Amino acid sequence: GAVVSQHPSWVICKSGTSVKIECRSLDFQATTMFWYRQFPKQSLMLMATSNEGSKATYEQGVEKDKFLINHASLTLSTLTVTSAHPEDSSFYICSASVRAETQYFGPGTRLLVL
Amino acid sequence: QQQVKQSPQSLIVQKGGIPIINCAYENTAFDYFPWYQQFPGKGPALLIAIRPDVSEKKEGRFTISFNKSAKQFSLHIMDSQPGDSATYFCAATGAARQLTFGSGTQLTVLP
Lengths: 114, 111
Known about the structure:
Chain A is mainly beta. Chain A has strands at about 5, 10-15, 20-25, 30-40, 45-50, 55-60, 65-75, 75-80, 90-95, 105, 110-114.
């Protein structure tokens, strides 16, 4: 149980384009989903917290107009990287919360912006 | 303070050894301390977690020791295997339920 999927697993795009990443909780309803970013050999950095039906809460330093988050249902959250640039290349990981403190992570999406 | 300090940065042990990874926190409002295992190119997977009212928790070959007064907790991996080679992250969370991660420990278990 508690499986989280992400799609796509990797994406290559040209600079200036937008990329959408989906995060789904497959066998449970997640009231809260989280989006993280991870650079090589570094820890996970929380980007935003997303509650179903409400606006996401972004961490300090994360541009909300650049990283659009939509949590349309209890099983789906999306992250759209708008006007992507090479510095946005990273490993993006979502997680979903079942009970209050337990987060289950997706497999991650590797984004490469050329 | 939201920081969680993790050490060592990397660790190499022989098969069968017991690697120990340590974490320290400052925020006394933290009330849940999970450990995650991450393989290259994959998302983190929850290994084991503990609450501060318990001093030790064991699940299989993984044991968490928790010292509330010192604000420290550690992960012990018994009878380590080459398949345990991965990056391990400690984390902590409080009422906001946002995880604060340690910096990670890259573990290598030699055959």
